[in-house]
Amino acid sequence: MSEQKPFDAEGIPTTAEGASPLIVPRHKIRVRVMQAVYAYIVSETPPEEVYAHLLEELYEAAQAEAPQNAEFLKELFFGVVREMPQLRSLIERHLRGWTWDRLFMVDKSILLCGTYEITHFPDIPLRVTLNEWIEIAKIYGTPRSPSFVNGLLDAIRRTLAEDTSSLVSQKAL
Q1: Which of 63, 99, 137, 156 could connect to 145 by a Cys-Cys bridge, CB 3.0–4.6 Å?
Q2: What percent of the chain has pLDDT over 70?
Q3: What 3 state SS string does 78-101 have?
Q4: Whole-prediction pTM value?
């Protein structure tokens, strides 16, 4: 009989003693960045303050264990904040029967993060990016969020893949 692993509050496997795993996984980073983007949007707090309150401790843990994951965290959060108007425009071009203002705030945060990851991280296969953000939508969104996020991110991926000079067209699915 196999031993079941306990999980922390965010669904991340823990060690037998209940401590977090040694390496801060990218899934946990994605969840926390989505939450920080959400906080940034709803509070209009400067991004540096949101980062200090919600991400700095995770960044430091990741930096000590897996510096590439720490840099992923920082680039994902500050990249989304920096390029939010362009990301929003790209998302809005793919909305059918919806407007940005009608979207559930968590879905907005997930879509912004997922779109940024699709367009800015050449080392992450598209399938990984899509699956991760769909899983996050299952946990934090509404019952309709996973299919909505899947359809929208895939439509964005397909559109960008048509441009042979885009990063997306060069990424593995």
Answers
A1: 137
A2: 87
A3: HHHHHCHHHHHHHHHHHCCCCCHH
A4: 0.86
Residue 99, domain member (yes or no): yes
Exposure of 143 by Cβ count < 10 A (0-12 exposed, 13-18 middle, 19+ buried)? exposed
pLDDT of residue 169: 78
| 170 falls within a domain | no
Q: CA torsion sign, 55 to 56 to 61 to 65? A: positive
- Looking at residue 69, which CATH number applies to its domain? 1.10.940.10
> Token pair of 85, please?
């108007």
Domain hosting 43: range is 26-165
- What does the pLDDT look like over 23-35, one tens digit per residue? 679 999 999 999 9
What letter would DSSP give residue 13?
Answer: B
Burial class (CB in 10 A: 0-12, 13-18, 19+), 93: exposed
Q: What is the CA radius of gyration of the chain?
A: 16
Q: Is the pLDDT of residue 18 over 70?
A: no
Q: Is 152 within a domain?
A: yes
